[in-house]
Structure formats: structure tokens, C-alpha cells
Specification:
heterodimer; A: 201 residues; alpha+beta; 5-stranded mixed sheet; 12 strands; globular; B: 6-stranded mixed sheet
């Protein structure tokens, strides 16, 4: 019999006042499932439901695999890729990082350049990192609808800030069953095995 | 109106002597435009920076002392002991507004005392008093200001030096007190504190009691322009939201993501511990400890990019360390401990040191084997060596270039002897052009974000051509020199960059205040004239194009993770000032 691997599902009921406690996890990076080989705007707006207006107006700085992106309608998110979103940044160099900014030529050496814009349409995971005001604005809805993370990342996050985090936790469940905080930590998979996490308030 | 200057001859026969003089040919200049005009026309370019012929010029901006929001920057100019060229360093705090209300366009410290007596200078509506006070010797800035507070109350503003300035170290800063009368705002770069120390001046106390706000020539137009100015700043996402919430340190995570965050003495563009010292983490900690993540450095600041950093017990430790400081003492040294970085910031402020120069010097020393990267306690002890003036401290306190030589380090990130700030020029090549060619040495604020298409200088830029970097750097350096002359905080540049009407509001304020008809072209001409003065001074001081270069390692050591090198050609760098 082949071994059936199931993804653990962790659900938190959280004090709404303390939801910002999760922002550091969003900065470390969460995994999201989408049809990849698609543009950033397709993934974020059409698949994840982020309003296009928000992407255009509030997300001033975008990185794909560490390269600064100028055009979200051309840059393609691939399986295993890493997408980072931030508000517009201060400073001369902050301004050079802005998507499509007039100072973009100053960081030519790290600008994202699309090589193969073909759409594959196959489903996969990508890493999303959310910084500063963008994390606060997009984070709650993403956490509510469910995000994936690897077991080690989630365990490290929960352990690093255990004292602060626990005060916000009203209830936690593992695979649908109520679970003590300590047992949850012990039950999380080690290493890169994925966990699906939802946070509701 | 600021129609007078205060010239103080510290070497006058019979003791220091203050004389009020008309601004004369310097009329209409403020901030950096004024400091650089005086230095370039009155200081012999080949003089010793710590000698009697050098002058220390302290100038508020054109709009300092008025109700104009954000007009509280103070410029300090001289021949730099760090670079050997002209220097303008500026600071926030209360001093610019107070000096403006006292009616002075500048204080110029000239000459040199005959002995090592230390002086304090009191300036109020009745005049100037210069008093010898050797009880102030070797006091840290915090103890000094406490003493001044006891003598003159807490409504005055102070400009002071710490022990580093008295020891004439090349990393010595000049401190300005903030709204809480703490010595937290520093004109940091280029060793200006050493020049103040060489003049024998420990502190200048500015008391504007009995003085009023400066009155504009056209009050109604000025009020209207200031209203538009404030609205523009408040509605912009950076000046109205990002900076107030997280401060400048919001850049840490983003620069790390970009792979342009110089780590462990510019050996990598990413730092594993970046989020532990990020603006987001810092702001949350400040709020948790009952400090503040949103605070201004002077009255009239509406951006509020600063904060109050308390220690673990909830007691005040320092103001919110800003991005450059957190980087220099943090990622550059491999340190990911915010409390240690805050302590280093506090020590720098107390001893009177430029946080960038000190942090970079320590990182270079770490590369030289003096301490291990990541050893926060060792970094704290090294800064204490500087405060004590031990032989090791004297090496570090004279900056990264001296430290690199002392410990045989090849990778020393300096231009014209001044340490690079927190952006790797291999990742952001345009800033590399400014680092290389700035009259000030490596300076992240020398070419700021006022775009060519707004100022209409130098024509349009083709982003696909390498020459675009040169043209942008040129335009930005011109624009920055102009903004520095207004006394406006450079952070206004974000709103000015994106909102032409906000830039127009700034011009309207200057016009309404002085009864002028300045245009955007006129602002650009002002910027060019400032740079021309500075370039001329540096050329006469012996600078050639060979000083307008980045250190060699940027060209031949690829920066992970993008593995890029600095690719702008030397010939291109030599065209930056062709206009």
C-alpha cells in the first residue's frame, strides 16, 4: 500500500485586536496555490481576488525572485517563485525601486526581465512575502481564506513569539479537532512538509 | 527677515569676539547654498581643516523660522577633515527654527583660540555672549544638555559637540537638540564636529524668547501655499503613511529583498537577520515598550518619521534609530539585535559621532579581525573605546578609511574618504554614480528624488541607455542642492517627486515669503550654482577626476545574490557635471 500523505490543517480563532501578531509570518513568506505561469496581475487580481486598483495604487514596490518589477502585466510567476509586495518606499533608492518609476533605470542591474511569457496554466505553489502597510492591508483576508507554510517556518514563528502570540489565541484546532498550543507545536511536521493554516477572528 | 549674520572670531586678540554683519552679497541664500558660498569664497581650499583659516558656517534654510511645515533643517558647512573637500552636513531638531527667528542667516565660526580653553556661546534677542567654561570638557552630549538645561531652562535650542568633536575625530558630528531638548539630531557627515572642536566651541545655546515667527512679504499667498504644501505631504503614501508608521527603517526588508542591502562589509546583498532589525519590527517594539513609532524631530514637522526607543524596562534609551544607523551598526556588522543597535545609536549621539561612519568603520574593523561579525557586545565596546579616546578608539573615530589602513583591509567602502551609506551601488548603479561624483564624498542624500521632468533640467532620460544613469544622477544632484538650500527636510522630496502641484507649492512659499518670482528653472539654476561652487572648491583643494570613483572592489567583486558588479564606465562618470 502506498503511504497517503495528507496536509495538516491548522485553524486559529484569534483576538481581532491582536491579528497584527501574524504580520512577521507574512514577512517571512507564506505559500499560496495558484495557476502559475501567469502574470503577477493575473495571479493576484484574477485568481486571489485582490482589487486591481489596490495593486496599482497601494502596492508601489514589487519584487519577483528578488528582482524589481516594473510591469505587473508582463512579469510571470512560476512554480516555486517568490513574489514580494510593499508600499512605495522613502529615500532616493526607495524611489528607484518603485514599479515603473521614473528612476527605475538607476537599478537596471537588478530589474526583472521576462524571458518566456508563455502561459502554462498548471497549478502550483509560490511564495508571497508582504511588507509594511501592504501586510496589514492584505494579510487578514489571506489568512482567513487559508495559506500554506512549511512546518518548520510555522513552528519557528510560533515558538519565537510564543508569549505574545498565545495571548491572542482564543482557540486552535488541528485537523478539525481542538488542540492545546503545546501539542500543536509538537504535532507540526518537521522540515519542508506543508501545513495549511487559517486564521479567523 | 534674516538680513544679518553673526561672525565669531575665536582667535581674536583679547578673546573670542562676535560681530553682527549684514548678509551683503550672500543675500537670498540659505542652508547649503549659503554654507557652500561662504566656504568656497572665504576658506582657502588648501588650508588645514582644523586650522585657523577654516570656517564653520551654521545656516538655517530660507524658510526656517517661519510657519512653513518641514522647514527645520540646519546646514553646517566647512572644509571637511574627513574628505579634504567642501562639506555640508545637515540636521533636524530645533536649532534652525530658533536661529531663523533670531534673525540670523548664519553663524560663522572663524579663527582659532590660542589655547585649549573650551567656550560656550549664548545667542538671544539681546546679543551674543561667549564664555570660557572648561567644566564642560569631555562631557557627553546628554550630560552637557542636562547642564545647559539647568542653567538656561528647557526652551532653548542647542548646537553642541561631544568628546569626539573635542578630540577632533574625523567621524565627529554636531548635535542639535530636538523638541524634548535631547541631543539626538546630528549633522553627522564629514567630521564637522571636529571643526567645531578645533574652534574651541562646545555648545551654542540659542534662546529665541521674545522673538516672533518670521513674517512673509505676502502673508496671504504664503498661508495658501503652505496649506497646499501640507495637503500634498499628507496625502502622499510615503510622507503621509509609510514614514509616520515605520520611519525610514521601513527600507530594511525591501532593500534586503532587492539584494542591495550591504551585509558584513559589503560582502553580500542579503542579511539573514534583516527582519529582526526591520522598521516593522522596530515600530512594534517601540509601541509595546510605551515609546513611540511616530514622532517629529522639530516643531512644524508633519511627516513624523522618527520615534522614541525605550529599553526593555520601558525607560528612554534613544530616539528611533533610522535606516542608515540600523544598517551601519546592524547588517553591515552582521548584528541583528535591535537593543544593541539602539545602544550604539545612543553612544554615538552622546559621544557626538556620525552613525554611518562609525558603523562602517566597525564593520571594516571586523573584517580586519578586531572583532567577529555579529558580535554586538564587541561593537558596543569598540564605540566606548572611541568615547574614551584610546589609541584603538582614535583609529575607529577617524572613520572607515583610516580603520581600513590600520588593519590592512582591502575592501574599504569609502569615496573621498567618506563611508558609503546603506545601498550597494552594484545593485543600484545609479546611486553609485552619485556616490562616486558627489562633491561631498559617498552620500546617499546628494542626489535625491526630485525628478528631471519636474525640474526640467537636462532633458528627458532614456532608461534603456547607460547614459541615463549619468543624466539622472546629474539632475538629482542639482535638485538636491536646491532643496538643501530651502531648509526643507529632504523627505519632502517623495511628495515633490510624484506631485508637481506640491513642488509648485514649495516654490510659491519661497516667492510669497521673499516677494520673488522664482520658477522651476530658477530652482535648477540655484542647484547648479551650489554644485559649481563646491566643485570649484574641491578642484582648488586638489581633487581630480580620480577622486570621482568607487573603490575598485565594486568593479571586480560580484555581489550576491544577483552577482553584479558596478558597470558604469569611468569616462561616463566624468560627464556627470557637463551641463
Amino acid at each position: 500500500m502506498p503511504k497517503i500523505i495528507t496536509t495538516p490543517v491548522v485553524e486559529f480563532l484569534w483576538d481581532p485586536q491582536k491579528l497584527p501578531d501574524f504580520l512577521p509570518l507574512l514577512r517571512r513568506g507564506i505559500l499560496l496555490k495558484a495557476r502559475l505561469g501567469a502574470t503577477i496581475s493575473n495571479v493576484l487580481c484574477e485568481q486571489l481576488g485582490i482589487p486591481r486598483e489596490y495593486l496599482d495604487d497601494r502596492v508601489g514596490t514589487v519584487f519577483l525572485d528578488g528582482s524589481a518589477v516594473d510591469n505587473v502585466d508582463k512579469a510571470v510567476v512560476r512554480d516555486g517563485g517568490a513574489l514580494a509586495l510593499s508600499a512605495a518606499m522613502p529615500g532616493l533608492v526607495g524611489a528607484t525601486m518603485r514599479k515603473g518609476g521614473i528612476l527605475a533605470s538607476m537599478r537596471n542591474s537588478i530589474t526583472y526581465r521576462e524571458e518566456d511569457p508563455a502561459m502554462s496554466g498548471s497549478e502550483g505553489f509560490f511564495v508571497l512575502r508582504l511588507y509594511n502597510t501592504v501586510a496589514g492591508e492584505l494579510g487578514p483576508a489571506l489568512l482567513r481564506s487559508g495559506v500554506w507554510t512549511d512546518g518548520k517556518t510555522l513552528r519557528d514563528f510560533l515558538e519565537d513569539a510564543a508569549a505574545d502570540l498565545r495571548s491572542g489565541c482564543l482557540e486552535c484546532r488541528l485537523d478539525g479537532n481542538a488542540c492545546e498550543w503545546t501539542r500543536l507545536l509538537e504535532s507540526l511536521p518537521a522540515g519542508q512538509d506543508r501545513v495549511l493554516m487559517r486564521v479567523t477572528t | 527677515m534674516m538680513e544679518k549674520m553673526l561672525r565669531i572670531d575665536m582667535g581674536a586678540a583679547g578673546g573670542p569676539k562676535a560681530t553682527e554683519v549684514p548678509v551683503g552679497t550672500y543675500a537670498g541664500l540659505g542652508g547649503r547654498a549659503l554654507t557652500s558660498a561662504i566656504v568656497s569664497s572665504e576658506v582657502p581650499p588648501l588650508c588645514h581643516p582644523l586650522g585657523a583659516d577654516n570656517k564653520l558656517v551654521i545656516a538655517p534654510g530660507l524658510l526656517s523660522g517661519t510657519i512653513a511645515a518641514m522647514s527645520g533643517r540646519l546646514s553646517v558647512g566647512c572644509k571637511s577633515p574627513l574628505t579634504g573637500g567642501i562639506k555640508e552636513a545637515n540636521a533636524g531638531g530645533q536649532a534652525a527654527q530658533t536661529l531663523g527667528r533670531l534673525g540670523y542667516a548664519a553663524i560663522v565660526l572663524e579663527g582659532k583660540p590660542k589655547d585649549d580653553t573650551l567656550y560656550k556661546i549664548i545667542v538671544n534677542k539681546d546679543g551674543t555672549t561667549i564664555t570660557p567654561d572648561n567644566s564642560l570638557k569631555r562631557l557627553g552630549n546628554y550630560a552637557l544638555i542636562d547642564k545647559i538645561k539647568g542653567e538656561y531652562g528647557d526652551k532653548v535650542a542647542c548646537i553642541s559637540i561631544g568628546p569626539a568633536g573635542e578630540m577632533k575625530m574625523c567621524a565627529a558630528s554636531i548635535a542639535c537638540t530636538d523638541m524634548e531638548m535631547r541631543p539626538t539630531r546630528h549633522a553627522g557627515r564629514g567630521g564637522v564636529g571636529a571643526v567645531m572642536g578645533s574652534k574651541g566651541v562646545k555648545v551654542i545655546v540659542l534662546d529665541d524668547s521674545g522673538m516672533k515667527m518670521r513674517e512673509p512679504k505676502n502673508p496671504e499667498a504664503f498661508r495658501e501655499a503652505n496649506k497646499n504644501w501640507v495637503e500634498g505631504l499628507k496625502k502622499h503614501a510615503v510622507t503621509g503613511e509609510g514614514l509616520p508608521a515605520y520611519g525610514t527603517n521601513v527600507l530594511t526588508n525591501v532593500m534586503n529583498e532587492a539584494g542591495g542591502y550591504p551585509t558584513m562589509n559589503f560582502s553580500s546583498g542579503r542579511f539573514e537577520g534583516h527582519d529582526k532589525i526591520s522598521g516593522e519590527t522596530q515600530a512594534a517594539l517601540e509601541i509595546k515598550r510605551q515609546g513611540s513609532a511616530t514622532h517629529g524631530c522639530h516643531r512644524g514637522c508633519i511627516i513624523q518619521c522618527s520615534g522614541i526607543y525605550n529599553d526593555a524596562q520601558g525607560n528612554y534609551l534613544t530616539k528611533q534609530p533610522e535606516y542608515e544607523t540600523v544598517w551601519a551598526h546592524g547588517g553591515h556588522c552582521g548584528i541583528d539585535d535591535l537593543d544593541a543597535i539602539a545602544m550604539l545609536d545612543r553612544l554615538d549621539d552622546d559621544y557626538g559621532l556620525d552613525t554611518i561612519e562609525m558603523g562602517v568603520a566597525i564593520g571594516v574593523a571586523m573584517e580586519g579581525g578586531v572583532a567577529k561579525f555579529g558580535d554586538a557586545q564587541a561593537a558596543i565596546e569598540l564605540v566606548k573605546e572611541v568615547g574614551k579616546g584610546t589609541p584603538l578608539g582614535r583609529i575607529l573615530g577617524n572613520g572607515a578609511a583610516v580603520t581600513g589602513k590600520a588593519f590592512g583591509v582591502e575592501r574599504v567602502p569609502v569615496v573621498k574618504g567618506q563611508a558609503l551609506p546603506a545601498y550597494d551601488p552594484r545593485a543600484v548603479q545609479g546611486i553609485g554614480v552619485t556616490y562616486a561624483t558627489s562633491t561631498m564624498g559617498a552620500d546617499h542624500t546628494a542626489g535625491y528624488a526630485v525628478a528631471a521632468n519636474i525640474l526640467n533640467v537636462g532633458g528627458s532620460v532614456d532608461p534603456l541607455k547607460p547614459e541615463g544613469q549619468i543624466e539622472l544622477s546629474r539632475n538629482l544632484q542639482i535638485a538636491t542642492a536646491a532643496v538643501d538650500s530651502t531648509g526643507m527636510c529632504l523627505f519632502v522630496a517623495f511628495a515633490v517627486l510624484d506631485q508637481p502641484e506640491t513642488f509648485q507649492a514649495l516654490i510659491d512659499m519661497i516667492n510669497a515669503f521673499y516677494g520673488l518670482n522664482l520658477t522651476a528653472d530658477g530652482v535648477a539654476e540655484l542647484g547648479k550654482s551650489v554644485l559649481k561652487n563646491e566643485r570649484t572648491f574641491n578642484a582648488l583643494a586638489g581633487f581630480t577626476s580620480s577622486q570621482d570613483r568607487l573603490p575598485e572592489f565594486f568593479k571586480n567583486q560580484p555581489l550576491p545574490p544577483h552577482n553584479v558588479t558596478f558597470a558604469v564606465k569611468d569616462e561616463a562618470l566624468d560627464t556627470v557635471f557637463n551641463w
